[in-house]
Amino acid sequence: MKSIFLIGFMGAGKTTVGKFLAEKLRFTLIDTDSSIEIEQGKAISEIFKVDGELAFRDLEVQQLEKLKNSENSVISTGGGIILRSENCKILKETFSVYLKADFENIFKRIEEDNTRPLLLTDDPYNTAKDLFESRQDIYESFKYHISTDFKNPSEISDEIISLYKVHAQK
Asked: How far apart, in whole angstroms, are the C-alpha atoms of residue 38 and residue 34?
């Protein structure tokens, strides 16, 4: 079976939902950020610090190229993977689901997380809000959306599986 790609802003639930979804479908879970860290031998924050964001975005493109034709996997992507048009093209050719959440809920989930290099600023709230707003139109351009607000990962996984079955019949 074709793989399922999860997209959305940081803290939307991609990794958490991905774990539940992979387990329910007996698929392999692949996290693009973790895969990049393993291949590069360093944390995402270190890549940002040493090589810069553009280098990291190049690594995301390479990672997605490797995964685009994968089967029987749930692929949890980084929140900024949609910033490159070549990634959007690939993701729109696969079964991708945008995990959508209200910004306030997202910020509650990520405010204590010091591993997110884009939020290591004097004002992480407004930095995150600006990033969130700047990416919304791109996320919204994807066909499938599921809200993660006030739902548990199991419920969200069930919604994705329902969409996946309908999509597979087309």
From this structure: 6
Tokens of 33: 């950020």
Domain harbouring 147, CATH code: 3.40.50.300
Query: What are 112-131's pLDDT values in tens digits?
Result: 777 777 777 788 899 999 99
H and E: helices and strands count for the chain:
8, 5
Asked if the model's pLDDT at residue 110 lies above 90, the reply is no
Residue 152 is encoded by which pair of tokens? 């548990």
Which tokens belong to 110?
Answer: 């990520």
Q: What are phi and psi of 6, to 5 degrees?
A: -105, 125
Residues β-bridged to residue 98: 7, 145
Domain count for the chain: 1
Residues in the chain: 170
Beta strands in the chain (DSSP E): 4-7, 28-31, 73-76, 95-100, 144-147
Task: Answer for the pair 75, 22: CB distance below 8 angstroms, yes or no.
Answer: no
- Domain, as residue range, for 49: 4-169
Sheet bearing 73-76, strands edge to edge: 28-31, 73-76, 4-7, 95-100, 144-147
